[in-house]
Specification:
heterodimer, A: 285 residues, mainly alpha, 74% helix, B: alpha/beta, Rossmann fold, 5-stranded parallel beta sheet, two-stranded antiparallel sheet, 7 strands, globular
Chain lengths: 285, 147
Amino acid sequence: MMNNLTRYVLPIIYPFLTPIIGGFLIGFDRKVTARIQNRTGPPILQPFYDVIKLWGKESFIDNSFQPILSLGYLLFILMSVGFLALKKDLLLILATLTLADICIILAAYSSESHYNNLGGRRELLSMISYESLIVLTVISIKITTGSFLLDNIFKLDMPLLILLPAAFIAMQLVLIVNMKKSPFDVLDASHVHQDLVKGISGYTMTLIELGHWSKIVFILNLISLFWTKNLLIGTSLALTFALITTLVDNIYPRLNWKTMIKTTWLAGVILVVANLAILIAMGVI
Amino acid sequence: MTLMTKARLKSLWVLHFDCGSCNGCDIEILAALTPKFDVERFGIVKIGDPKQADVLLVTGPANNRNQKVLRDLYDQMPHPKMVIAVGTCACTGGIFHNCPNTLGGIDKVIPVDIYIPGCAVRPEQIIDAVVLALDKLSGNVPKKEDE
């Protein structure tokens, strides 16, 4: 009974908790940012007030397909979190995540607004920059463990972090792009709301925000895979990465999209590939 | 108080539009966002998108050139929304009153909920006005029968 609970019931409940965890993360992030800037900052629950308020506002929808695609974005991310919790195939998880991204890009392009199109273009750019890193990391996990199945990571004798330390560092870049933080916040600056207008309103915005929070939690889960022996250590590693992202956001100015793609591709690809090359040279795999 | 009302009161997103003011009031609006006054602790954030804004802060007098933009911004804001006229120019036209190229206060173009006189207004006054806007949103102050 207990075994069934941890194996099937919890992984199915967990995805629905991810938006809540993500909301608290964002609230904490806003608080830390405010403290760094010597401000009091909003309460931790602030992101929840924001999305509830947006839900109750009047919606201007120029294409009725847009809310459906936004809902798809949220649901596909929840699905990929669920697959991760059920320890399914990493390729399946990646495919579901990409479907979510395709949903939001189609949602952006389904509207005739220039701002939506601009946002869609930027979403594509950030996707180009981080998806390659996730794919490379997944491939190196496959080469190390011999399979795309997540179960194999749990069966390893030592944590993935010891085998793939450079790929682990590359995940920090993925997290920064996904949390829309400086220096890689071409998508939209999460604190500086005035930067790029999104052109969406009302409950569509709520769905997209919830999807964004879940995606952050998904990436954090992916990071915690690097230490599967102890759940506590894995979680604290992921949370440390989130905290580092907040600190980096407050220290660095933003860079343009060319620099973002150059940095993530060059630094990230070199890190992951060098990691694999050293492992092969040492005869570990 | 329902959860929605509470959320509305706790999260007020502000859109700022400069109708051609001398920038005195604009600087005071920015001062309200700086660490000393830090309105973000009340959930007030300055945003650039009228489609997500709750409050429209307008500085400067309305004139023939900007009235269309002002009207557009107001129309793009979803309900419930508030308009605050910041500074004497936005309230009545100020020193530009009766100038041939201006229309006067912004209430000639869009319905205004709250007027803040002053040249330039103080950040405290802006925060006071936003608090009054919160009262209006929660229904404590009867809404004006206009529009």
